[in-house]
Amino acid sequence: MVLTTTPSTWTAEDGASLYGLDRWGDPYFSVNGRGHVMVQPRGDRGGSLDLVDLVQELQGRDLSLPLLIRFDDILEDRLERLHAAFERAIAQYGYAGRYQGVFPVKCNQQRHVVEQLVESGRRWHFGLEAGSKAELLIALSLVDDPEALLICNGYKDRRYIETAILARRLGRQPVVVIEQADEVARIIAASQELGGAPLIGVRAKLSTRSTGRWGSSVGERAKFGLAVPDLLATVQALEQAGLLGELRLLHFHIGSQINDIAVLKDALQEAGQIYVELTKLGAPMGLLDVGGGLGVDYDGSRTATAASKNYSLQNYANDVVATVRECCAAHGIAVPTLVSESGRAIASHFSVLVFDVLGTARPPGAVPAEQPQEPLMVRNLRETLATINAAPAAGGHASCDTLQEAWNDALKFKDDALAAFRLGYLSLPERAQAEQLTWACAEAIAARLAGLPEGTSIPEDLLALQAALASTYYANLSVFRSAPDTWAIDQLFPVLPIQRLDERPMGLGSFADLTCDSDGKIARFIGTGQEKSLLELHAPRSGEPYWIGLFLAGAYQEVMGNLHNLFGSTNAVHIRLGTGGNYVVDHVVRGDTNAEVLEVMEHDPKQLLERLRLASEEAIGRGHLAISDARRLMAHLRASLDQTTYLAS
Ligand SMILES: *Cc1c(COP(=O)(O)O)cnc(C)c1O
Fold first, then answer.
1. Would the CA dihedral through 262, 264, 270, 272 be positive or negative?
2. Which of 47, 66, 95, 614 could form a Cys-Cys staple with 570, CB 3.0–4.6 A?
């Protein structure tokens, strides 16, 4: 982080730029003149909502924070953009085929989300991809469009395969993708027994090297897919069983969040050749499924880094279309229908998690009153503080040097004080004074730095001092429940206050969540070019909420979230833009109650209560507990069972 001094006036645009809203937010999120985050659920097509007003009104409906707000219009807009990009590419390259995508259910299995996608995707015959029997059940029952594809991935036992074969007779289009060599025999046996086959696909293990977190999804040691020898053996086995005529699809997946378009191009070329060869071997084919991996630009930097990607949706579609066309044209083979399984790129943007800050803590900076006969270290610290306050006001470098020296002195005296305490020469109140004076020095330096002329560069060590003064913001949230990837795989999401963007933030901070786990924190933030460990935040005002939004987290977080410390799901709402600046609350999904999370762990809430009732009777009997107190205790316990697992504001 570069902390050069900031402009003296501060506008909402400065806020938008500080939090990157003008980079990653486009076209769905922006800021308005009141300094509030605005949501444009239909992207460029008009209509917007003030997120702060929305949260306020939802709270009025008894939907307490933390609250997951799902904008179904954004989901639809993402689908539109994906299809429009492929349509443009197909027109541009004169591609004699079409695009027909599927949504990988594992990305967000929530009923309302999948239903919305199926509904919005109907006009493109958009289908679903399933990776397990439960997901297959969702896909089979929700997709009733006979033209939509149901891509069946994942490990498949006999029952999974037979289900797919029979679903074909229901009029669905299930494609069973062979991912492991031993699935071939099961598909053949099931087809023979049922006297009918599913549509068959093969997943190729590409040799292309990928990069980033999911780079190991490709290559010889990848978990899924058939290496070329297995691919050939599969074709032969299908041919012998008279099933080669059902081999329709080639699939590959080179991992999620592809950062670098060059990786995709390599994979496309390799897959394109394999497709051509499979056709030459006599398979009818017709479908090329390029898997998932279409990335999301979390920090808006448009670079080939983990939190970003160096290509647009249109670049992606162009590369898929152009590369496949080239491969097929060179061999005079008809181009396939293009399928993608884009999950993250469709589902990330539509949900926003809003949580409240319960309080903050920062190092104590007040100057302690002078005591008679203070120890030397304490006196030294007082002198240092006086030096800082007396440092020349202007004159950039000279004052930076003085401040730097003073800070080094302060740290030295503090260390001396700690050593003296350990050896028994300093009392606890004296140690407290030394610590308080050290922080007072830090604050005084920070105040002097803030007063330096605009653009003065500040030495590195003094920047570290700003960090030492950072506050902890206590968040009404469980990171493990609502943003597990921040903890599990160091994923970055845009996090920012949704109000007061027109106000200069007071200082730096990070978030600590409600769990008792020291990993339960958000302490990595998107920056410009580089991530940062502290975020610029405002001082909460008493009696006024300070709401924080976590954005772009609609993919994977809900299902990966866990019950650590028994914090359950949060409240969730589905919002649709209405007419004339209105909105409609389509669905309300109440968060887990304490009773519900207890039951997940096999506890019986009634039994727990009964045991406490008996314990309180006993305490009443022994005269330790008044009857009225026992009643109050039981009332609290009973009420908690029916309430959400989060703190009431
Ligand atoms: C996870 C997965 C996807 C979705 O990937 P995204 O990066 O979310 O688009 C698609 N296909 C397969 C086989 C997957 O395992």
1. negative
2. 66
Mutate to test the pocket of ligand 1, among 150, 256, 257, 350 (most ligand atoms within 8 A of CB): 256
Residues in contact with ligand 1 (CB, 6 Å cut-off):
104, 106-107, 153, 253, 256-257, 291-294, 341-345, 555
- Residue to mutate, 250, 264, 341, ligand 1, most ligand atoms under 8 Å from C-beta: 341
The two structure tokens encoding residue 160? 């999974």
**Where in 181-242 does DSSP place strands (E)?**
199-203
CA 397, CA 419: separation in Å to the nearest integer? Answer: 33
What is the CATH architecture of 93-342? Alpha-Beta Barrel (3.20)
Per-domain residue ranges of the chain: 1-66+347-360+476-591, 93-342, 376-466, 595-642
Residue pLDDT, tens place only, 598-649: 999 999 999 999 999 999 999 999 999 999 999 999 999 999 999 999 998 6
CATH topology of domain 1-66+347-360+476-591: Lyase, Ornithine Decarboxylase; Chain A, domain 1 (2.40.37)
Question: Would the pTM of this model clear 0.90, i.e. be above it?
Answer: yes
30-54 per-position pLDDT tens digit? 999 999 999 999 999 999 999 999 9
How far separated are the first and last CA of the chain, in Å rounded?
Answer: 34
Task: State which ligand 1 atom lies nearest to the alpha carbon of 344.
Answer: 8
